[in-house]
Amino acid sequence: MEKAAIIHYPADHYVYPISKKTLHIRLQTKKEDVSEVTLIHGDQYLWADGKWQYEKTEMKKSGSDGIHDYWHVYIDPPHRRSRYGFQLKSGEEKLILTEKGFYEEAPSDSGYYFNFPYLHPEEVFKAPSWVKDAVWYQIFPERFANGNRGNDPEGVLPWGSEQPSKDNFFGGDFEGVIEHLDYLHELGITGIYFTPVFKAFSNHKYDTIDYLEIDPQFGSKDTLKRLVAECHKRDIRVMLDAVFNHSGYYFPPFQDVLEKGEKSRYKDWFHPHSFPLKGGEYPNYETFAFVEQMPKLNTNNPEVKNYLLKVASYWIEEFDIDGWRLDVANEVDHQFWREFRQTVKRIKPDLYILGEIWHNSMPWLRGDQFDAVMNYPFTTNLLNLIAKKSITGTEFANNMTAEIHSYPANVYEAAFNLVGSHDTPRILTECEEDKDRVKLIYTLLFTFMGSPCIYYGDEIGLSGEMDPGCRKCMEWDEEKQDRDLHSHIQRLIKLRKEEKLLANDGHFEFIQNDSNVVAYRKYDDFKTIIVLANPADENAEVTLPYPLKGVKVTNMLTDEEFAAEAENLKVQLDGFGFEILSFPASFNK
Hints:
21% of the residues lie in helices and 24% in strands. By secondary structure, it is an alpha+beta fold. InterPro entries: GH, GH13_cat_dom, Glyco_hydro_13_lg-like_dom, Glyco_hydro_b, Ig-like_fold, Malt_amylase-like_C, O16G_dom_2.
């Protein structure tokens, strides 16, 4: 066995409480190097005749990424404590892994082993229970619908009359959203994520002027209250965007520093390098990226911290919002986010906290900061598979297996999965206007682990390049909408709601074979759902690795039922084709 490839740390995604009495333990080994893994575990204080008393539990392989195999096991320590190690076998070779290294025989002293000191129920990671069933819809308010001409900004353009630019306005507002809530409800949406709605200079509103005021072009606070109430009537949650990493150029405290320099009482609200402040290509104060209009806030400053926590509380207490999406969350200090979580959860315990982070996010997902992050690694792999056709189905499965095993299982269930946003090209454009590929992408989005999100207009075939092209006005003329694509997405949402296995209620694993087809199953003790996706132009055939002769199989997209005639069912897929099949068996042993 290759010892250097055997990896376990007694923390994070390798060992964690998954419920108030259960530990989930994982081990990583070189692919196909280890044939059997057994967990050695017991209470460190249970001894007899001078020896530690332990038991052994077989570990199961939970996946492979082409380089590593992943093993896991669930145990219920009777006294909430556990010392543990691993017995590994490969042919005739046997190794024992403990915290103090490798041994040929299991040490008799519990002090040699990894230690999970105590399972505290309050430390179990828990995202709000409603999130795993949520279907999100991201709205860029300026471009969704103009319901009130009376609050249009100066120079507003007729709806959709021009291509979007960095600085043009079309008058989208809250009234427009309210007018189309029935459309969203009929589509199956249960959560709206709004990009910023607070008073700001730009059309995107990520340059806040006043965090406690609604931008006048969107309406009033009363309108927002009505919008939230109308959403809640339709069982739709509301999540607002918090830009706490930086303010806007016209934020009054920053204007005070620009005017008074070192004498400003607000100078420590920001990160000036020298005075007077100067913008340009490389400002002499810290900013988001190097954008002079977005000065970075000093969230370690008590005044700034108190102000922002007041903001976070205000919109929950006064408007009953259900979530905060946190912009540029990875550039804000961890302690601020810990206090943020404590503050908002005291007010509304089931509030959803979503961080914008594009890379591995384990440091923010230990239960003391966020409930989830925007799952851009999923986005990247899915687009590489189908839109760019730069990876194979097997490579997609390998990449996603590694990604899934980078987080605790209960963390990944709440991941915010998206295939496009205000920061990316439209999914139809990414797919070179090929609707079949878009349908395939949405089939995977709505059947994968995590909480799916649609970017407004993608469901009816809006196109557009990177910002600002991806921020077109929503098309409300049904004659100009792709109703076939809309119906496909609506059907997928309905399936996800009707079948709880598609909404993270069961187990997940890839069942790849030698073909390029992506194949995975979601299952519990009673049912298995198989998702098959062909990311290539050419037709493909997949043989399911289960004894299905005589078993009733249901095509979940067509409701067709049939009894498999052969022992191993062969499924034919067209180019960019897909199937979602279910049958009453788990085959999970």
